[in-house]
Amino acid sequence: MIMIFECKDVTLGYENKVVAKNLNFKIDQGDYLCVVGENGTGKSTLIKTLLGLIKPLNGEVIANVQGKNHKGVGYLPQQTQAQKDFPASVWEVVLSGVLNNDHRCPFYNKKDKAEAEKNMEKLNILDLKKRCYRELSGGQQQRVLLARALCATDSVLILDEPVTGLDPAASMEFYETIKDLNKKENVTIIMVSHDIKNALNYATHILHLEQENDFFGTVEEYKKSNVSNMFLGGVAND
Ligand SMILES: Nc1ncnc2c1ncn2[C@@H]1O[C@H](COP(=O)(O)OP(=O)(O)OP(=O)(O)O)[C@@H](O)[C@H]1O
Q1: Is residue 160 part of a domain?
Q2: Do 116 and 129 touch, CB atoms closer than 8 A?
Q3: Atom of ligand 1 at shortest range from CA of 54
Q4: How many structural domains does the chain have?
Q5: In the prediction, which pLDDT does 232 show?
Q6: Domain boundary pick from 154, 184, 209
Q7: Closest ligand 1 atom to the C-alpha of 13?
Q8: Final residue before a domain boundary, out of 154, 188, 223
Q9: 122 occurs within a structural domain
Q10: ipTM value greater than 0.90
Q11: Which of 8, 43, 72, 177 stands 20 to 30 A from 21 (CA)?
Q12: Number of Cβ within a 10 Å radius of residue 209
C-alpha cells in the first residue's frame, strides 16, 4: 500500500483557535475518503491543512503526493458565486490546471494542451471547449473544474462539497464520474460532503469530525459505530 497522507496527533486550527484535536488517520493510494461532520467542525480546515495552505497547530501531517506529469494534488474548492461567474472560456479554465509550482513559464506548451484535451475527453466535455464557463449549468461547471483538477494530478483529488447546488441527476452523474476515476484509474479521492447517504455508498473510508468524538475507519466500521448512529439516526442501515 502506498501511503498518500498520514495525520499523527494533529491539532487543526488558526491562531488562537483550536478547531479539532488529536486527529490520527492514514489515507492510501486508491482510497476514497469522505470527510463528514456538522457545520464548523473543521472539514475545510482539514483540507487546507492537507493542501499545505495552513500548518497544523500541533502534530504531524505527512504527505506523499506525486502525479504522473506534475507534482501535487488536484483540488476542487467550494465554488463561490464569483467563481461561477468567471469570464473565461472552458478551454482556458481547464488549461490553467497545469499551472503549478513546476510550471514557471506563463505560456502553455504542446504537452500542456494535450493534457488539457485528454482530460476534457475523459470527462466528456470536449464539445464545450469554446463555450464561456459562466454560461454553463452547475453540473457542466463541475465537470470543467474536475478536468482542470486532473491537469494538476492523476493521483489525488480533493473535493470540498462538490455537489452543492447540483440537482439530483447532475449529482449522481458527478458521483459516478468520481467513482470511475477512483476504481478504474486508482485516483485517491478525499471528499468533504454533507450528503451522508452517498458518502456511505461510494466511499471506502469515513472521517467523521466531531468535537471530542472523531471517528476514522472503513465504511463498514463507521456504520457500526456509535458516532454514525447518533449522526445518522438510521440512514446507515437503510
Ligand atoms: N481563517 C480563519 N480564521 C479563524 N477561524 C476560522 C477561519 N476559517 C474558519 N474558521 C473557523 O474554524 C471553524 C471550522 O471551520 P471550517 O470551515 O473548517 O468548518 P467546516 O466543518 O468546513 O464547516 P461547514 O460544514 O460549514 O463548511 C469554524 O468555527 C470557523 O469559524
Answers
A1: no
A2: no
A3: 1
A4: 2
A5: 72
A6: 154
A7: 12
A8: 154
A9: yes
A10: yes
A11: 72
A12: 24
